[in-house]
Amino acid sequence: MSASHKRPNSISWFWVGLAVVFLLSLILRFWGLGRFNTFVFDEVYYAKFANNYLTNTKFFNAHPPLSQYIIAIGIWIGSHLPIGQDTVNNLTGSVRSTWSYRWLNAFTGSFIPLVVAAIAYQISNRRSYALVAALFAATDGLFLVESRYALNNIYLVLFGLLGQLFVLLGLKTHGIKRSLYLALAGVWFGAAAAVKWNGLWFLLGIYLIWLAAWAIKWINPLKNAYTSRRDFTPLQNLSQLNIGHILVYLAIIPIAVYSLAWIPHLQQNPTPNFWDMQKQILSYHERIGDGAKVHPYCSDWYTWLLMLRPVAYFYRTAGSSTEPLVFDTPALPATTGKVIYDVHAIGNPVLWWLSTAAIFYMLWLLLRNSLSTQKFSLFFQISDRQVIDNWIILYLVLNWLANLLPWVPVTRCTFLYHYMGASVFSGLAIAYFINNWLQSYRSSVRIIGLTIILLILSAFVFWMPVYLGLPLSLDEYRLRLPYFDYSQLPSWIKPWLPHWI
């Protein structure tokens, strides 16, 4: 059968696969969304702040306001729907259903695997790679947990990735269409920064890959004329962007969007003004401090690579799975109840550790070929499909570093979820290798790739109870979150304490 007859079938299977991944993401994020009729972790801030916008209540926020606007929209819509009204509380300052302040996060987070798939396809032009990347993004527990509650990290990651995606789309076009895509990229980058300042790390990644492209062009002025359209990657067009493009679309527009995002907040809270707010936010985070005295789940940036300190978002015990949970008293020790409800912000361990190994291997490949100008030039020489793979490696490594290294000098208490932006690119790295193995002519290599996928899926199912807060016995709980001697090894679980303020 000719390639022309095979192509429609491959396309249909690709879209079916993406639809299945999206439905899986959607179902898991909405399943039992109102299970805990209380605040979970930092919902005590973001759900309350969002409701403050609806009630015109003045308050101080230690982060930019965009995510709270979005949650507020979700609360308003959710309060007018007949869905999820069976569990209500007044913790936000108004009587609201738990579903109302969570549903929009769950819906939004369901799209992250699709955006990851789009980026994977744009940098490789390979549907199989896009599908594997989407599957891995959908089976990471940290993204699942963050999507199920009124928190802000899911918006930061989504907007940052959309900014990257629109840059890649712009690089494939010319003229007015390119300008439109780049302008939209600037809007998304500004939106990411308007959620948290570290949303700018996604923009930093674009700056780094742009500078690298110009360096490559300077070292090797030859153009990739022999690269076919089938193998073409927009990353090779990065040097077509000049300083004017960067200043207008990827500097001025993000700054304008970030500034405009403050208008509703400042209308409600006119003091402090815009500039004083920026100073107070910076001062607030500088005062937080670090270490176990600040919060038991503080973790240094290098511990994120092996997921040494996940974060407990919720913990309660009960006599049985049918016994109602009581939220107006402190949580009891695990040994006092027969059933434990725990929500842990923990990634998929198999996926996480393999992703770290994959991105370090890519980093080593890049460093090895950067030791000399000649090797670095040859790394991007025109010839065959390997050139495209080298651009993919460069893109993933630089974006991973851009989202990780800015945390190195930070002295305040940081948490595992601060690694979410970087983890997208390490996840794309392991998906890249797995996809290559699945395309191998050697059956043994294909079997290795399939085995790793099964291990990742199995780990996701195994740890799912602590992603979704499903009831566990004490033995089942300890099996998933092992206790260690704190004097010897870092632990995945410490006695549960309220989150830091």
Number of H/I helices: 19
Number of domains: 1
In one word, what is the shape? globular
Overall number of strands: 5
Q: What is the percentage of strand-forming residues?
A: under 5%
Rounded to an integer, what's the Rg over CA atoms? 23 Å
Structural class: mainly alpha
Biggest beta-sheet profile: 3 strands, antiparallel
Q: Approximately how much helix is present in the residues?
A: 55-70%
User: Termini distance?
Assistant: 64 Å
Quaternary structure: single chain
Strand order of the largest sheet: 3-4-5
Low-confidence stretches: 1-6, 223-230, 483-501
| Mean of all residue-level pLDDT scores | 87
Please write the string of helix (H) and strand (E) elements: HHHEEHHHHHHHHHHEEHHHHHEH
